[in-house]
THAP-type domain-containing protein
Amino acid sequence: MVLCAAVGCNNDSRRTTGISYYKIQSRAVDIQKKWLINIRRKNYVVTAHSCICSDHFEAGCFVRDLQAELLKITRPRKIKDDALPTVFNHGMKSLPTKRRLHTEQRLNAKQRKSEIHNIVSSDVSNISTSTGNIIQVNPESDITTLVTEHMVERIEDRGCQTDYILFPDVFPANTLKVTVSRGTQTFPKFCNSSTQYREEDFLDVQSLLECHSYCSTSTHSIDHSHNPQTSTPKKKVPIEFLSDSSTSSSSDSRDTDYKPSQDVADSSFYSSNGSFSSDDANPYICLTKLNTLEPHEDRKYIVFESSLCQLFKFCQICGSNNINITKSTSGSLLKVKSVCAFGHSSTWNSQPYIRKMPAGNLLIAAALLYAGCSYAKMEEFANLLNLEFLGHSTYYKIQTDLFTIINEAWTKERLSVENSLVGRELCLSGDGRCDSPGFSAKYCTYSLLDSGTGKLVNFSVIHVGQVELKSTNMEKEGLRQCLTTLDERLNINILATDRHIQVGYMLRKDYPNIIHQYDVWHVSKSLIKKLSEKAKSKQNEPLKPWIQSIRNHFWWCVTTCEGNIILLKEKWISVIKHCSNIHEWTSNEQFHQCEHPKLSKNEEAQKKWLKPGSAAFQVLQDIVLDKSFLKVLEKLTLACHTGDLEVYHSMMLKYCPKRQHFSFEGMVARTQLAALDHNNGVGRDQAIASSGPNEGTYKYNQVFPKRTSVWVAKPIFEKKKYEFKKNLMARTVEVRTAGILLPVFELPVVPENIASVPKPPKEETVKKHRSRMSKSILDQSPAVSELFCE
């Protein structure tokens, strides 16, 4: 039990209620001395349990708890650091014993009932308008005495026009609700009477008056000179939320324009991220400012249901226990409806709506597609985590709208790239990529990339149904569509492709002005593949150590021929003489000797030269002097390399993985995402080490290719920023919010099924399957056959 240390005070924690106790020892030393002097215990030995009750402090000593006042709940009152006990009745032997709590409540209710009855029964015609009477409110005076002195002049306030919020009609009559407190009135209350209005026409009167200047305890005068019979309502203006800025308690009692807001010590009491609505409380009163961030910019969290339920134990309006809580979901949206013991009903949404669609569902679908993920994997992830996720049909319905946003972004990017290339002689690289290896591909994506800038210029997705179900014709058709849809202002001088026969024939026939070149890497890869296959036999094993040298020699010939086909061929053929230890000759026209330094006798002895006439030498000679290969060299004079295009195809696997089926629209949209990703990542600098022993040097990574079996260094570039994806998310929210209808890109007419035979009824197919399985079982097991025969 806690006792008050003040002389003559009988308050203790067991018998008295509504009293707070403050430890003397918790104060500063100088404050402790002042406290002991005021309570007349100068030589009192202070212990850890020595306390003074709240009855000995004036109202100005307490820290105002706005949250408790607004919610009408009771909390322990806090006092200021410099507060001193000054309220005592030292002349009496002891303070009078307090009445019991229910007795005080009964008397207060009776007094309020009497006051309301007097107000309602008063004759409106006899109400006189006060023009000059001003009540001077002194915080130090007793409110009961103050009201008694002015009871003769019944000053009432009817139809009061305010400046904070304007109303269409006159307010009902209001008068000060008189409550008695020690020292001064801390939080005035009001009683409403007379005319009843619709709830949606104006805010709750009592809440409004609590937020107005003339409700606060102030030394300023309260003017009641408004004439209720001649007051003209002003024009309605939009209602705004109150500011959540903090104001010190000392300035509250002096500022007549003060508007109560939530307690800044508990800024998380009102939810600003979630959506909260109530049928019993006005949502415009004393709320914090709503979050001004866009839905895609707002931070999201994974919240466990058990933790979330703790927030809904109590009513958001009155603080009482909720007796009925109903939860429902719509995709990733959680909606909680609660009803408290006093009948207050409220609804809370875990996310905002964007034109009747939960923002979370829209953003999840957009992020899933823009990141290159598949719905099946994300659904499995959500199921393993027991995470609420949007359904299959919802995702694909949203995805259809997202395709138009991606198409809009790619169209702008393609036009920007084309405009930057106007007026230049272009060297383009082209190559096709099928969605599956072999001759069973359904889609082929043909891409054109500018070798000068490294950016993708155009691409085309071909469905096998567009080429009479022949997958070998898709690459040629893809190149044709790419060249057809390019801007006519572009001047294509060189086009480098692989050695596709149909592509070469089409370029010679339909595009004779374009110089067609082969990709050096594709030709080199084919050459090394032939040599490796031949070197696997035992008699050709001496050829194996020379494969890497032959590859290097091929690249050297192509890059140093300077566009001279004769010089290129002579340099290439010279590899036969070099491998047999012959480094000078006179048979050629332009190239007569090896350009490497003269070998020493030790170097010659260490080399495993190929003997002329041996099996390995004969294989090398046949491959090098092959007529078809020498003809291929004619399209390698410009040393065109499509390495950037191969890197792009590798990155496409992130958005369009092989062995995974997509619709035609999905394939086009995902390819557009890959193209945007590539173009936004072009031009990145090589990363530099910021710490460690190699600080300030370029970063490299070591890789071990299986084909060469040699460790090589690959540069590491700076990370991508993916700003274009953030723009896509912002555009997604903008389009949905404004209801913008974007143009849908035109798709070619493709067959629904690529099968060459029409699909029979499902029952017929299942019947054949069962009969076939039964027949196989009977053939394999004689015992089973006898059983069926019986």
Observations:
- The longest helix spans residues 392-421.
